[in-house]
Amino acid sequence: MTKDGKRSKRIKAKIYNKSKSKGVDNAVVLKMESGGLSSVLADKRIIYTAAFVLPFLCMLAIYALFKVFPFGDNTVLVMDMDCQYAEFFSYLHRVLIGEDSLTYSFTKEMGGNVLGLLAYYASSPFFLLALFFPHEAMPEGIALVTMLKIGASGLTFAIYLKNVFKKCDLSVVIFSCAYALMGYSMHYAMCVMWLDAVVWLPIILLGVERVLDGKSGWLFLITYTITMISNYYTGYMSTIFIVIYFIYRYFVRDDKKSVRDFFIKAGKMLGFGAMGILLSGFILLPAFLDMFGGKLSGKTSLWMAEGFWSMNIFEIPRRLFIGQYDSITNTGSPSVFCGMLCGIMTGVYFLNPKIKLKAKVAAILVYVVMLVSFFIKRIDMAWHIFSYPNWFPYRYAYVFCFFSVTLAFCGFSKMREASKIWFFAGVGIYLALLAAVYFFDDSVLKNEELVALSFILVGVYIIALIFLFFGAEKLKPFICCALILLTCGELVVNGYTDMVGLSKEHKYELRSEYARYDNRIGEAVDFVHERDDGFYRMEKTFSRTDNDNMSFG
Q1: Alpha carbon distance 543, 524 (integer Å)
Q2: Is 234 exposed, middle or buried (0-12, 13-18, 19+ CB in 10 A)?
Q3: Which pLDDT score, from 0 to 100, does residue 490 have?
Q4: Residue 5, Cβ neighbours under 10 Å: how many?
Q5: Is 104 helix (H, G, I), strand (E, B) or coil?
Q6: Which residues, in sequence order, are CB contacts of 165 under 8 Å at separation 6+?
Q7: SS3 helix, strand, coil % of the chain, rounded to 5?
Q8: Is residue 513 pLDDT above 80, yes or no?
Q9: Model's pTM, two decimal places?
Q10: Euclidean distance between CA atoms 311 and 168, whole angstroms
Q11: Is 78's pLDDT higher than 50?
């Protein structure tokens, strides 16, 4: 090597060491040395930012298309969100500004405990934003919280993928958007308190991975505790899936295994889980006392469900297509749409010979457990804390979506290691499945235009994937960006059609009507308070909801 060459090598080493000592990501160092676009896009800060911002903006786009205020006169208030949750969040605002009690209120019926109620509906850390949104602005506050939760879901899933699969590139953004904007989140966005489980599940399972690695369980403990505090109901559902995931990942991983090792790690998980429940006991205890006095008071039993099978499970194939909203009532099917790309790559995952057989068999067993849960009513009820849901069925479908998107990402990551024949075989099987649903079970498809769009998108995805996996290396960043835009656009359309379907089945509250009622009550309450600041009750001769007393004190 020449003298100049040695000097150049020493300079580069100094740049790398200096950057490393300051905590600069390796991708940034690569950018400094090569200036390549791929290196820039591999910076985890860019990946994490995109994984949060893109789903957030997609949700904003859905609201804009649906003409949610300020884009029009619609709000996000529909069904229980309109007649219950908005009023409870407004009550939380009154608590946070010191105008009402966290434990007891005379605005609840003839007076009663509110801690259990708030534990179910409004204990999420995200709802601290209620401090800034009084009753007259609560629709906008709920919309903002929903967008933040959708964005946070993309971020946490990106963190999970980066740390578990050791990848940090644009493919992480693609599948993080698919997870954040999955059909479950769009379908149940009105039950905004359930979205916390979607946010925290990836980080909880990253904590499980660390326990399996023999590392500390503190990440699992902290995030599991936050989940149980945020919403114990979906926290319970996440707990069931944590057990399934732990067993699945233990046997799939390449670590040395033994019965003793399994029970040591399982015991560690059990111990940290018990600690999480104890740490969240301050909110779980009043919540369960409240629940056993209501939902679980004996009105509904595990053995009282009519029938053994859930017949609407046969409509799951429709969820392979974009925008096939059916119903939010108990006649609805599980909302498991995660995007056409995830469907393609899940098929490729199972055909890729580079992925070990034991991983595929284990994944199939997880799917069997989930499908059996959807299909057998009593198992379905067990997921719902042994109480048959009153509408909003299959509330645990988010764990199915998580698992599906994770497998799709794994299939995508391993695709370059396999030959072309397995890629085309997987795509062919997926297309055959779509065609079979369309030609032989078209009665479940509700929107022909969106079915046509689904087939067109599959074709575009296939062309893009061919160029990505088998084309020139320099084109790959641009193709990944195109896949991100396609995925986001597709999921925006799906989310918008879900809102339209809900609007047809259950009308959304108009912003003008909400404001008119708020002004009417607010002026009357202020008028009375100005003249009498003592202790008394008052009531209206009209109402918007059964819970609006809680909003106005």
Answers
A1: 13
A2: buried
A3: 95
A4: 9
A5: strand
A6: 409, 410, 413
A7: 70, 5, 25
A8: yes
A9: 0.88
A10: 42
A11: yes
One-letter amino acid of 367: Y
Measured between alpha carbons, how far is 143 from 77 in angstroms, rounded to an integer? 9
Cα–Cα distance for residue pair 249/207, rounded to 1 Å: 12
pLDDT tens profile 353-382? 889 999 999 999 999 999 999 988 889 999
Q: Which of 414, 494, 502 is nearest to 182 (CA)?
A: 494
Please give the structure tokens belonging to residue 67.
């003409």
The total number of residues written for the chain in this structure: 553
Q: What are phi and psi of 25, to 5 degrees?
A: -65, 145
If we measure between CA atoms, which residue out of 246, 156, 244 comes closest to residue 197? Answer: 156
Q: Which percentage of the chain shows pLDDT scores above 70?
A: 87
Cα atoms in the Cβ-side hemisphere of radius 13 Å centred on 13: 6
pLDDT digits (tens, 9 = 90+) for 462-508: 999 988 888 777 888 899 999 999 999 999 999 999 999 999 888 89
pLDDT at 471: 77
Q: How far apart are CA 527 and CA 549, in angstroms?
A: 16
pLDDT at 312: 61
For 165-280, where are the alpha helices, taking DSSP H only? 170-180, 183-187, 195-212, 218-230, 232-252, 259-279
Phi, psi of 75 (to 5 degrees): -125, 180
* Amino acid identity at 454: S
Q: Is 468 exposed, middle or buried (0-12, 13-18, 19+ CB in 10 A)?
A: buried
DSSP line for 530-547:
HH--SS-----S--SSTT
What confidence score (pLDDT) does residue 526 get?
80
